[in-house]
Specification:
6-stranded antiparallel beta sheet, 8-stranded parallel beta sheet, globular, 775 residues, alpha/beta, single chain, 28 helices
């Protein structure tokens, strides 16, 4: 961890239409907000036209479409003159699987396993016919063979280019295709036949073996150079769970950068899981904080009531039974057997080779090994096991559950073998290490695809809870639990990241805030659904999901809501999917979204709905202020310094714009200004002290002090508060001293044991308060 971590960061999504020069023009405005660092999306060379940059093609150069290295260095220089540093998103796990643009992959496809670049990728040359399957054809080979052409040592098809093995250019087409180190196949073959490691289920992204010292050095030389030159001061590590050895990679990175970088990892922590203490990083990118922030503003009683309303409304059209744990497990089985069939096949092959070479393990049938792999994978309760602590993830209880899938007890011993291989307690040869790494990598892909991209779209009582790192079955977080989390972060990871919105959140914080308020009034939500029942929907599940999305979004906009609703039904995979679309059903979904959620202003459809606006505001402002002042380094996603309503990508990845200030902007400037003025109060060494209100409405106040300099107090569950009669005589005792309202610079309060502040007075102007000690 760098000795001087950022006080706050601001994430900008770079893309060809918003390059380095555009970011440079925004620097004065962003410096005025009070952030200390700009956080840039990936900057290395990517597929031409890429709107995100995670499809890296060449680690040796900064992306030309963004302005190249000259543009990046100019941005850094301008940022420095305004007191800002740069944090860059680094993608070590994968590259674009594009032979035309990925020079390393192109060399492997041309030269085969003897290529010096063959070590870059996890390719199983023993799978299939010994060639690399490229699942890139739009149809089966016989249907497209007449569209191939050969020119200048390359093979072309519909704009795609593939290198040819030396000496094969003049062969007849069929012989030429058979003579290559790769096999061109129909895109549908990727699910079961793929022979290389990919990112999740995206065959267009091929995994990179950064655990190899040579690969690490070559793929990180440019980034390290930019760090050494002071251009980059911080790194966000994308998807570390995809790596063979995340801890080893982070140790190599820390050594290469000389510890000069503030480094955070996009690590999704599940439930009470904590970041491995041995990792040489400042912390995570903040999804663990997001879950606590969303949860502490969610009503637990109402969330349970809403779940009952949901089950009655959707009936059999949702996931069977409508309960989170069952939905999650069913999704895991579907993904591991269908979407990740190639990955489980790879694990089975490796395990089979190990068993064949070990007299003590022989005669495990391939089907038994495959079943053991599957049954253990679906029982991993977190994203993946690591070097240490694997026994806490792959427990004996998990093994017993996996064995229950076997009808013959003797065959169930395959579970013990697979568990020992996954834990690394059965041998340490190359194949053993490969199995352990691949099992962990597949585990993370399984959880991401089954939870984030499937179950979260099938179980939808309260969509605000269905966020990366969230717990749809337990959307609420008690105040005491929130404080305990903050105290632990202040002690163990004081420079970790915190977020409310990111480029990957399914709904921006403002959209989630509006949806979360529905947990305080399940009856009002049921009435709203009844009022729009006249708009026919393809099924109740899509109706519930679409209308709740529209309520959160707030403004009818069919051009934005339509694609988000269509994506939700494809991800759910209940009636249609990305790979097996039901065209008739999707037309019905699109028509419904346009006629209903995309047209009817649900937030103002009735007096009861309109009356929720102040409570949505209270939630949104409260969560924003808590995030900006809690332990950790807060990140603002682009445009979220004001009200920002966005849906799932690509909707949330539009270019940065400067908009008019609103009350959120005032809050942001005040909070970030205090962080920059008093970094010692918020960073490492700073303290976090929970403050408890006293009185009939005490549960509705979340308050804490930072190092005796700043006090944050916010209203939670304001609708329930109003229904109970408001603040009444509820009071908050402030720490000793004189305190000024940092949001208006006028009001003052006195702290001390005998000087309680009435919360009705503290929150008279707005539902949040930010107080600064008067020197």
């Amino acid at each position: 961890m760098t000795p001087n971590p950022p006080t706050s960061t601001y994430r900008i999504q770079l893309q060809p239409e918003f390059p380095f020069a555009a970011a440079e023009r925004a620097v004065p405005y962003l410096a005025g907000l009070g952030v200390s660092h700009l956080h840039l999306s990936p900057v290395l060379e990517a597929v031409p036209g890429s709107a995100h940059g995670y499809d890296v093609t060449d680690h040796r150069s900064v992306r030309a479409e963004l302005g190249g290295e000259e543009g990046l260095r100019a941005l850094a220089a301008t940022a420095r003159t305004h007191g800002l540093g740069l944090v860059v998103d680094l993608v070590p796990n994968h590259m674009a699987a594009s032979p035309r643009h990925n020079h390393a992959l192109r060399a492997v496809l041309r030269e085969g396993p003897d290529s010096p670049y063959a070590r870059w990728f996890d390719i199983d040359w023993r799978a299939g016919d010994g060639r690399v399957l490229l699942p890139v054809l739009p149809a089966r080979l016989p249907e497209v063979r007449d569209r191939f052409r050969v020119s200048g040592g390359s093979l072309y098809l519909d704009g795609q280019e593939f290198p040819l093995r030396a000496g094969t250019e003049g062969l007849p087409l069929d012989e030429l295709l058979d003579a290559q180190w790769y096999r061109l196949g129909w895109w549908r073959l990727a699910r079961t036949e793929l022979g290389y490691r990919r990112f999740f289920t995206v065959s267009d992204l091929i995994g990179v073996r950064v655990e190899d010292p040579g690969v690490f050095a070559a793929s990180h030389a440019k980034i390290v150079e930019l760090v050494e030159d002071g251009v980059i001061e911080g790194l966000r590590i994308d998807h570390p769970d995809g790596l063979a050895d995340p801890q080893g990679y982070l140790e190599d990175l820390a050594a290469a950068t000389g510890g000069r970088c503030w480094t955070v990892v996009e690590k999704i922590l599940t439930g009470p899981e904590t970041l491995p203490a041995a990792w040489p990083v400042a912390g995570t990118t903040g999804y663990d904080a997001l879950r606590r922030l969303d949860g502490v503003f969610t009503d637990p009683v109402g969330a349970d009531e809403l779940a009952d309303v949901y089950r009655e409304f959707v009936g059999s059209t949702g996931d069977r039974g409508g309960h989170w744990e069952a939905t999650e497990r069913r999704a895991a089985y579907e993904v591991v057997t269908h979407d990740l069939a190639a990955e489980t096949a790879a694990l089975t092959r490796i395990a089979g080779r190990i068993c064949a070479a070990d007299p003590a393990l022989r005669d495990h049938a391939p089907w038994a090994l495959r079943t053991a792999v599957r049954e253990l994978l679906v029982r991993v309760p977190v994203y993946r096991p690591y070097r240490t602590g694997g026994e806490e993830v792959l427990t004996p209880e998990a093994a017993r559950g996996a064995k229950a899938a076997f009808a013959v007890p003797e065959e169930a011993t395959a579970v013990d073998t697979v568990r020992e291989l996954a834990l690394g307690t059965r041998g340490d040869g190359p194949e053993h290490r490969a199995f352990r790494a691949r099992f962990a990598q597949t585990s993370s892909a399984l959880r991401a695809k089954s939870v984030e991209d499937t179950a979260f779209y099938r179980y939808t009582p309260l969509l605000s809870a269905n966020e990366v790192g969230g717990d749809a079955g337990r959307p609420a977080v008690p105040v005491d639990e929130f404080h305990a989390y903050c105290l632990r972060i202040a002690r163990d990871w004081p420079a970790t990241g915190t977020v409310l919105s990111t480029h990957d959140t399914k709904r921006s914080a403002d959209v989630r805030a509006a949806i979360a308020v529905l947990a305080q009034c399940p009856g009002v939500w049921a009435e709203l659904l009844a009022e729009v029942a006249g708009v026919p929907a393809p099924d109740p599940h899509v109706a519930w999901t679409a209308w709740q999305t529209a309520f959160g979004f707030g403004t009818p906009d069919p051009d934005r809501l339509g694609p988000a609703v269509l994506k939700s039904v494809r991800e759910a995979g209940l009636r249609t999917s990305w790979t097996e679309p039901d065209a008739e059903y999707e037309r019905a979904v699109a028509a419904f979204a346009a006629a209903g959620p995309g047209r009817i202003p649900l937030r103002t459809a009735s007096e009861a709905a309109f009356a929720l606006e102040p409570h949505i505001r209270a939630h949104a402002l409260g969560a924003a202020l808590a995030q900006l002042t809690m332990p950790g380094v807060p990140e603002l996603y682009q445009n979220t310094e004001r009200e920002y309503r966005a849906l799932v990508d690509p909707d949330n990845r539009a270019p940065f714009t400067v908009g008019p200030d609103d009350e959120r902007t005032v809050l942001v400037r005040a909070a970030l200004g205090l962080r920059r003025a008093h970094p010692e109060a918020f960073g490492p060494g700073g303290t976090y002290v929970p403050l408890a209100a006293e009185g009939p409405a005490a549960a509705h106040c979340l308050a804490f002090a930072r190092s005796g300099r700043v006090i944050t107090a916010v209203t939670r569950l304001s609708l329930r508060l109003a229904q109970a009669g408001g603040w009444q005589d509820t009071e908050l005792v402030l720490p000793e001293g004189r305190w000024t309202d940092a949001l208006d610079g006028v009001r003052e309060f006195t702290g001390g044991p005998a000087t309680e502040v009435k919360l009705a007075e503290l929150f008279a102007e707005r539902p949040v308060a930010l107080l600064a000690r008067v020197e």
